[in-house]
Amino acid sequence: MAKPLPSHAQVVIIGGGIHGCSVAYHLAREGWKDVILLERKQLTSGTTWHAAGLVGQLQGSHATTAFAKYGIELLESIEAETGQNPGYRRSGSISIATNTERFAELKRKADFAKLFGIEAHHMSTAEISERWPLVNPDGVLGGIHMPSDGSANPIDLTNALVKGARMHGATIREHVKVEEVLVEGGKTRGVRTDQGTIFADIVVNCGGMWARELGQKNNVGVPLHACEHYYLVTEAIPDLPADLPVLRSYCDGTYWKEDAGKLLFGFAHFHAKAWAAKGIPEEFCFDSLPFIEDDVMEVLELAMNRVPLLQETGIRTFFNGPESYSYDGRFTLGPAPDLEGYYVLAGVNSTGIQSGPGAGKALADWIIKGHAPMDLAEMDPARVEEFQTRDPYLQERCPETLVLTYAMHWPNRQRETARNLRRSPFYHPMKARGACFAEVQGWERPAWFATEGMAPEFEYSFGRQNWFDCAQAEQKAAREAVAMIDYSMLGKLMIEGRDAEAFLQRLCTNNMGMRPGRVAYTLMLNPRGGIESDVTVARHGPESFMMMCSISHTRRDLLHLQRNIAEGEDVRLRDVTTAYGVLGLMGPSSRAVLAEVSGIDVSNEAFRFNSLQRFHIGHAPVFAQRLSYSGELGWEIFATPDFAEHVFEVLEAAGQNHGLRLIGGEALNALRIEKGFVHWGHDMSYTESPHQIGMDFVCKPDKPVPFIGRDAYLARKAENKGPFLCAIKLADPEPLLHHNEPVLRDGKVVGYVTAGAYGYSSGAAVGLCLLSPPEGTSGREALAAGAYSVLVEGKAIAADISLTPFHDPQSRRMLG
């Protein structure tokens, strides 16, 4: 008879796959003994058991690469601790390219590896054939070899984590189904299972492909869906080398690994299908799905061409199993946004074995410390909006993530599914004028505008894409004449009430005690002095403020505000993002255009920078705040949706005599980088302090109400530790910067490009970068010493760095 469940626990973990077991192991190893993991059937019986077990250290981001790197360390040490062999083989990996663009991507991947000290080097076609003699080298241009990659046995690795968790005091129970997470007053209180209730203040959803359904019961969005995923295993192959590296041919959509004298080869499908649209069968346990040849035939033919031995070797296993994929290709890791004590780790897009140990450790550290142990903002459950957690959206979008796994990872690559969901009031007129749209948080936002006779469609490349000249002309208009952009999708949050000012004084680093009609750029910090967000706040009245947020972080900022309303405080929050269409008007001629249509004095004396006024454009009542994200003279003009197109038409007509041009996000990104303006989530996050980003000027530690994180910020500022943000520009006008390129000082890696673009005014690729000062020094000023370069596709390109922006460092154009 099964032992009764305990009535209480410190932490309940739901799900006995690689992730749940990793969280349990790492919590217990840190001394949290009162931890219980509940598995509905048997350990590993969902997805973990049939994983291919590939272990590659280099992933798509800093955080996921850190997870995978730690995973290797654990694989090499856990047997000594637990006595359980995880089945790890360090065979290395080879990724091959059959076209120049793929080769460029692989070279950039090898550059990225240098940021983490991971060995990655170029291999010629002849060297690839020698190391992997079964490969057909036809069309192979070369590849990248990573000696530290390999593979592990998923079940053995999970069992090692389970054994370690139990050794350190955690409890693991199988055949216990969690039916409900108990909630009271916005906090978790435990779980109700088919064998009783366990009360706990912390519950961790590691339910794998069940995580979405479990989360829905408590309105916790887990944006993943199970998709069908195939691999095949051959019959035994005589004399097959046991030390074959894992081989990836992204262009063929296939990977191969040696598997006990056989070859296992899997697919990144060209056409993927969501599975279990009506729910996962209750009896699912170590199950596989029907194998449909037509689903893989296209990729199978490419595989048999790349490894001709497959044409004469029998197939022992035709396998189709469900794998969870997220809507945006990112993990979901961290606390649920609306429910205290509820944590999620799920949706890892077929990287569970290589990421599981590190992701589980990160979440365990988060639970123990009460905050993220590193920058995990890309995985934040609060990034997800309600429509992105619904099954119809996920069933359309998640299979595309599987398709894109081995597709080219182009700069600014756009998703093709679930499009045209959210459109601003200016969508149709801008589309009529040649806008090519990019999708951000469901919004269709102009990325650039096609010229006459040009299709408004992306043609991707790591070099100059088809819109390059369009974006240069758009930048030129903003710098030399006048440009207009759609800002409607920026978040707009109203903060109202008797205590609104005091509340914002506590939340914001800048002084919110400004008079109505004034606007301020400000940061919001966490108690550790890290930057939680950067926003613009306008005071509309004595008890009314509007906060403007980044498109993709609006929900996150709203939740941050909600969490910090003190008991008894008269503060009311409203999301009014869709209540206004917003046009950004910028450039040296923007004042002339606005003067022509507004009937008010827009001189520098009458309409100061960081101020707000109400007036009419045509027949439409509007308000405008004088701000600029381009670094030029500019205004942000707000109109209600009913008048929005009218305002657009009046401004467009007036602008014709001044050289007005519509611009998109690609041009704006280059303009803001040239001006040194930052973007949260790229150039900074909650791990960086204002002094590192050059943001001391918006921090007012002596204002009447101290802001959250003030003392921690001052302490970190006094320490003056890096890395520090600065501007960088390539000396060669031809190469391009995108992001994550390593920056070298005197030939050694000292940081990376956080954001890059080609600047019209600079005549070269420009970027922002986080750099560590020379050893034994501190402060941003120490960065000035040394010769700098940037690795771009394996070549070190000479570069200049600057502690001030390359464009108009004194802001005379913007303030004039």
UniProtKB/TrEMBL annotation:
<protein>
    <submittedName>
        <fullName>FAD-dependent oxidoreductase</fullName>
    </submittedName>
</protein>
<dbReference type="InterPro" id="IPR013977">
    <property type="entry name" value="GcvT_C"/>
</dbReference>
<dbReference type="InterPro" id="IPR032503">
    <property type="entry name" value="FAO_M"/>
</dbReference>
<keyword id="KW-0560">Oxidoreductase</keyword>
<feature type="domain" description="GCVT N-terminal">
    <location>
        <begin position="427"/>
        <end position="703"/>
    </location>
</feature>
<dbReference type="InterPro" id="IPR036188">
    <property type="entry name" value="FAD/NAD-bd_sf"/>
</dbReference>
<dbReference type="InterPro" id="IPR027266">
    <property type="entry name" value="TrmE/GcvT-like"/>
</dbReference>
<comment type="similarity">
    <text>Belongs to the GcvT family.</text>
</comment>
<feature type="domain" description="Aminomethyltransferase C-terminal">
    <location>
        <begin position="725"/>
        <end position="808"/>
    </location>
</feature>
<dbReference type="Pfam" id="PF16350">
    <property type="entry name" value="FAO_M"/>
</dbReference>
<feature type="domain" description="FAD dependent oxidoreductase">
    <location>
        <begin position="11"/>
        <end position="366"/>
    </location>
</feature>
<dbReference type="Pfam" id="PF08669">
    <property type="entry name" value="GCV_T_C"/>
</dbReference>
<dbReference type="InterPro" id="IPR029043">
    <property type="entry name" value="GcvT/YgfZ_C"/>
</dbReference>
<dbReference type="GO" id="GO:0016491">
    <property type="term" value="F:oxidoreductase activity"/>
</dbReference>
<dbReference type="Pfam" id="PF01266">
    <property type="entry name" value="DAO"/>
</dbReference>
<feature type="domain" description="FAD dependent oxidoreductase central">
    <location>
        <begin position="369"/>
        <end position="424"/>
    </location>
</feature>
<dbReference type="InterPro" id="IPR006076">
    <property type="entry name" value="FAD-dep_OxRdtase"/>
</dbReference>
<dbReference type="Pfam" id="PF01571">
    <property type="entry name" value="GCV_T"/>
</dbReference>
<dbReference type="InterPro" id="IPR006222">
    <property type="entry name" value="GCVT_N"/>
</dbReference>
<dbReference type="InterPro" id="IPR028896">
    <property type="entry name" value="GcvT/YgfZ/DmdA"/>
</dbReference>
